[in-house]
Amino acid sequence: MKKARVGILLGMAILLSFFFTGDRASGYYGDMVLNSKAEKRGMPPVVFPHWYHRAEFKCKVCHPAIFEMRSGANDIDMKKIIIDGQFCGKCHNGTISWKPIECARCHSGTPGMKTGVLEGFPQ
């Protein structure tokens, strides 16, 4: 039983290291790319780790209370997140989870990525 627990913890640590060190710049299958505003404003596209959030929380935590489940339906920007506490800012507020003050944690995409769900594995 102890060996299984150590294996699970090691696997989780490896996955988290990819998330927090930026080695996931192109995202993973099922992640969401938000780039309708980012590059226009001089920032890399946002790659939202949907797979990571979905592994931790049930859908109803975010849908429909925080995000409408339709592409383009949520007019997200940094003012709404940081100042107004909307969208990601509902949880990423420094109390529930880390504050969105390190740009590269979210703005980790590569130039030219299209808004939408990643359906293939990036190269």
Plain-language structure description:
This protein has 123 residues and is mainly α. The chain has a single domain (26-117), classed as Cytochrome C3. The protein contains four helices and three strands, in the order αββαααβ. A three-stranded antiparallel sheet has the order 2-1-3, with no helix packed on it. The longest helix is centred in the first third of the chain and has 20 residues, at 2-21. The model has no long low-confidence stretch (mean pLDDT 84).
List keywords for this structure.
single chain; 123 residues; mainly alpha; 4 helices; 7% strand; globular
- The shape is globular
In which range does the helix fraction lie?
25-40%
**Number of strand segments:** 3
Q: Write down the secondary-structure element order.
A: HEEHHHE
The tally of domains stands at 1
The CATH topology: Cytochrome C3
In what order do the strands lie side by side in the largest sheet?
2-1-3
Number of helices: 4
Query: What composes the largest sheet?
Result: 3 strands, antiparallel
* Strand residue content: 5-15%
Parts with pLDDT < 50 across at least 5 consecutive residues: none
Layout of SSEs?
Elements: H1 2-21, E1 32-34, E2 46-48, H2 50-56, H3 78-83, H4 103-106, E3 116-117
Antiparallel strand pairs: 1-2, 1-3
Give a quick precis of the structure:
With 123 residues, this protein is mainly alpha-helical. It is 30% helix and 7% strand. It has a single domain (26-117), classed as Cytochrome C3, CATH 3.90.10.10.
